[in-house]
Every structure is written in structure tokens, then in C-alpha cells.
Amino acid sequence: MSLSAEIPVQDELDYMTSCALPTPWAQFTLHAFVEKATGKEHLAMVLGDISNGEPVLARVHSECLTGDVLFSQRCDCGAQLEGALKRIADEGSGVLLYLRQEGRGIGLVNKIRAYRLQEAGADTVQANEQLGFKPDQRTYGLVKPMLDQFDVKSLRLMTNNPRKIDAMTKLGIEVAERVPLLVNRNAFNQHYLDTKAAKLGHMMKPLTPAPVEDGAL
Ligand SMILES: Nc1nc2c(ncn2[C@@H]2O[C@H](COP(=O)(O)OP(=O)(O)OP(=O)(O)O)[C@@H](O)[C@H]2O)c(=O)[nH]1
Ligand SMILES: [Zn+2]
């Protein structure tokens, strides 16, 4: 990429720079943005031609240091990150936005506090509320200027979260297709995933089958 691309392009964000990022699955280009209001560094991993007007295979991933980096099995984040990058590599093009909204927007220390409350019996939603937060504090406004940088207007979005799809639509980004991302259900995260499905609307089949009603078979 030429240096002339390294200029501020958006009100909310500065586009900073890029480099090649070899991964086990493909060589992506890593683009760095800085959010003006907070100084947070947000990332885009791009593979192939995503500016050709076709819907782009995409993942809008929220930071989860424990899951993405420290191999935590409490959640499905690390496996979703890997699964999304593999799928983009398999298809030969796509984009992964890595948004620094750790702990559904409450930050790492508060997420650890929330985990501690979950160890005492709260579920993931109750734990946030006990700490004085909404169940999900995330916003997605930065997705628009990040995608504008690559002239992307339509997504094949890898997610199970209907609120993420609504947020894209409200930003004027078309979600041409939802691509489910169901990975790494395990003994440690099944209650968390079932709570996401029951209370946060995530589109996931519960692990425990619903009771069969009389006469249903
Ligand atoms: N506050 C809080 N945040 C959590 C917890 N577990 C994971 N997270 C954070 O939740 C975010 C990921 O959200 P998820 O609900 O797993 O997934 P999603 O992004 O809404 O939906 P998908 O696109 O389907 O993955 C990351 O920022 C994690 O750090 C938890 O128990 N409490
Ligand atoms: Zn996680």
C-alpha cells in the first residue's frame, strides 16, 4: 500500500498503516485504525479483493483477551476467531474487524469481576447487571468508517448475534447473508452459550434438548 493511503479519512477514526500478516491459514493484510475519542487501536484483517462490489465474507469480532489469547474455554471467542479466519482463507477473500470492546464493552478487569460473580452463581447477564452495567455495552458505529476504508457495503456476516445484524443494517451496511459460527461448545461454556441464546437472543441450538411433549412423537 502506498504511503498516500496513510492519511486521516474519517471523523471518528484515523487510518494509520498496514502490513502483511502471515497466519497458519493465509497471508492477510493487517490494517490499523485509531479511534479519536478513546485512542483505542482497532484492526482489520483483509484477504483478497474485498472492494469489487460483491457481498464480503466478514466477521465483526469483539476483543476477548481471555478467549482470543489465553485459550479460555469459558466462552467461544477464540474458536470463533480462528474459525472465521479459516473460513475467509478457505474462500480466498474476506475481512475480519477486531474491535477493542473487551468484555462486551465493560473492559477486562470488570469482565474478570463478572466471571467471579458467575462462579458465585450469577449468569453472564446477571453478573453484568450486578456490576452496574447493561448486559451488553457494545456499540458498532466504528464498523461503518472501517468498512468505508475498503469500499465495502454489503456483508456475508459470520455471527449468531441478531443485534449485530440489526446494528449493521442501521449503519447502512447490507447483511446479504448470515453465516452461522457455531464452534467450541464445551463443558465449561455450555451454560454461558445457553444464557446467550436465552437472554441475549443468539441463534444457537441449546445443548439440552427441549422436553418432548406428550403425543409429539
Ligand atoms: N461481560 C462479559 N463479557 C463477556 C463474557 N464472556 C465473553 N465476553 C465478551 O463478549 C464478547 C463476545 O461476545 P459474544 O456474546 O460471545 O458474541 P457476539 O460477538 O455477541 O456474537 P457472535 O457474533 O455470534 O460471536 C467479547 O467482548 C468477550 O470479551 C462474560 O461472561 N461477561
Ligand atoms: Zn470470550
From TrEMBL:
- Where GTP binds, per the record, is at R59, V60, H61, S62, E63, Q80, E102, G103, R104, T124, T159, K164
The record's active-site residues are: D136 (proton acceptor), R138 (nucleophile)
Q: How is the cofactor bound?
A: Binds 1 zinc ion per subunit.
Q: Which GO-annotated molecular functions does the record name?
A: 3,4-dihydroxy-2-butanone-4-phosphate synthase activity; GTP binding; GTP cyclohydrolase II activity; zinc ion binding
User: Which segments constitute the GTP cyclohydrolase II domain?
Assistant: 18-180
Keywords from the named record: GTP-binding, Hydrolase, Metal-binding, Nucleotide-binding, Riboflavin biosynthesis, Zinc
Against PANTHER family, the record matches this protein to: 3,4-DIHYDROXY-2-BUTANONE 4-PHOSPHATE SYNTHASE, GTP CYCLOHYDROLASE II-RELATED
- Protein known as: GTP cyclohydrolase-2
Q: Which gene encodes it?
A: ribA
